[in-house]
Amino acid sequence: MKPIKKTFFKLSILFFVFCCPALAQKDYKLWLQYEKKTNSKTISDYLSNIKGIVVLEDTETLKIAKNELHTALNDMLGNKMQAGAKLEGNNTIILGSKLALSPEIQKEIGSGFDLINDEGFIIKSISVSNKNHIVITGKKDIGVLYGVYHFLRLIQTNKPIQNLNIADSPKTNIRILNHWDNLDRTIERGYAGFSLWNWQKLPGFIDQRYVDYARANASIGINGTVLTNVNANALILTPQYLEKVEALANVFRPYGIKVYLTARFSAPIEIGGLKTADPKDPGVVNWWKDKAKEIYKRIPDFGGFLVKANSEGQPGPQNYGRDHVDGANMLADAVAPFGGVIMWRAFVYSEHDANDRAKQAYAEFVPYDGKFKENVIVQVKNGAIDFQPREPFHPMFGAMPKTPLMMEFQITQEYLGFSTHLVFLPKLFQEVLEADTYQKGKGTTVAKVVDGSYIKTKLTGIAGVSNIGNDLNWTGHPFAQANWYGFGRLSWNPNLDSETIADEWLRCTFSNDENFISPIKKMMIESREAVVNYMTPLGLHHIMDTGHHYGPGPWVSNLSRPEWNPVYYHKADKNGIGFDRSKTGTNATSQYAPEVEKLFDNVKTCPEKDLLWFHHLDWDYKLKNGQTLWDGLALKYQEGVDQVKNMQNIWNKAEKYIDNERFKEVQMLLQIQYKEAKWWRDACLLYFQQYSGKELPVGVEKPAQSLDYFKSLKFPFAPGN
Ligand code: GCV
């Protein structure tokens, strides 16, 4: 090597060794960047009068709150605040829960405490003895921590902080991540590396990531985590593993996060040495009671169990001629004395039931309405099939008025391009939450079912299948962090608007510059429709390739169970395409309230975005815009591709507003997304064209490869499978 080249080579290595880890921290810091404020004079001026932070109680949670506030204000505003200032004679920020407040301050808060629940917070600007204070309080210390994050978000997003008077509470009580993490650290449907939980080194080694994970979750109001995969391994319930779970619970506790585990229904046999797991067997009942006792002895605030039973080969009560109620209630009795909860999943479809898969969960569960114990909550996916780019809301929402139902969203993008595609999921989540079930008349939205304002239940909740792994940036794609963030914010308030969420996230994560915010926010909001268009437009669904669900596979027809094959879902033939779930077909529409049923059942009123979900239509069927179904479908695929091109153009203009590292990462990922959007378009159109027998309409690019080529693509090592 020539000397000059050698020096350059060495410098490059030095650059990567010393500069990259530092740069990578931006990705790692998520939405808690606390960038120095350069142009927000009002906030700085206002806060410069504040001399310090007064903390009224000595709890772990308040220590975290104080440190967060102190560091963040220093980082953002360069304030040299005293972290343990005295109240008298100073303008301060006061942190403390209700009972710790002086009578004078309590008086200033007035009836504020009536407006919040146990996890809620109040932020109020008050004046006592001629001094100005900002009080951040709650009924419990966790409310104070949530209040601190809210206050910091106001500053991060350049919102006014004068004359504050805010009272806010979470609208649901279980706001939880579901990790589909296996004990060997692989993650089912995980696309951001391996599991964070290093079971081998726990409990002795506490990775700083556990703390950072808890902090990130607390900052968006998440208060629970299920550590293990719903396709469960009973070993997690053995003393060897429970010791490790306990160590994690200890880290998460001061952040208000409870630990939950998945319970493998056959655990009494596998680790308990019993001959049966029959929920009515007294030996089994006692085994679970003892197991619960053992867990609560270690982890007094253990949240409870999440259970996938008699679904996709998992064991369950039906193996013993019992039903879901028997199974759930038996476990509920075991954890009830300790305040534990059972989250029983309704994701069931039977290999012996030839009926439309979309109808099966409703058919199986709705007759159980009112039969579950009061510490059971039934966890229902947002749609009746499986986390598709678009699904009509699950008909179970609203159909079980005597049973608490919790929402299950998928944050990891199993069917939406993994962590390679930029898709802003809060837009999808909002669409589902806003859907009107009509179960108690107009306005009975899914959000109202989930937050308990429709049926008054003690338990309410929203779960999100996590997209977090040990990648440096946590989620694989920098923009997938927005999906974690948005999930948390929506679980706190299911009525939040996805645009507000995108706005907040962008400001906290990247920049407050309007020239950056406005186009990038638009790009995020439109990204969801783009993925629907280039994967499954007009109500198509589940046409992803087999097993890994990466890329198109509408041709797959050779799997043992009919409903595992894409051909089952699109039903394309010479006469047309789509799944007839109307009265003339499987009558799945009858599972909705009459108003919704009517809407979906009639092809003329069915929203076109759901058309082929509910109807099988001729290729020449006329869409509302006058296009034939074939032309409309093809043009939607093209539109999806064009939308990704547009996302690329928008992103390319963002370079000057953000750091080079994240800019480049997103740029490369969008390039792949564009390539894959074209792959989706070409593969699907070539395949469906065999049936329609029609030319591609003007405006749709000609495929660059043959259908055989697309069919030949195999991905044996696709992640998450
Ligand atoms: C954890 C889909 C996924 C499975 C997942 C299952 C579930 O079928 O492909 O990986 O299993 O849903 O939600 O239980």
TrEMBL record:
Signal peptide: 1-24
Domain Glycosyl hydrolase family 67 catalytic: 155-474
Residue span, Alpha glucuronidase N-terminal domain: 30-151
Catalytically driven reaction(s): Hydrolysis of (1->2)-alpha-D-(4-O-methyl)glucuronosyl links in the main chain of hardwood xylans
Highest taxon, organism lineage: Bacteria
Keyword terms: Carbohydrate metabolism, Glycosidase, Hydrolase, Polysaccharide degradation, Signal, Xylan degradation
Alphabetized InterPro entries for the sequence: A-glucoronidase_C_sf (IPR037054), GH (IPR017853), Glyco_hydro_67_aGlcAse (IPR011395), Glyco_hydro_67_aGlcAse_N (IPR005154), Glyco_hydro_67_C (IPR011099), Glyco_hydro_67_cat (IPR011100), Hex-like_dom2 (IPR029018)
Homology family: Belongs to the glycosyl hydrolase 67 family.
Subunit description: Homodimer.
UniProt cross-references to PANTHER family, sorted A to Z: ALPHA-GLUCURONIDASE A
Protein name: Xylan alpha-1,2-glucuronidase
Originating organism: Flavobacterium gyeonganense
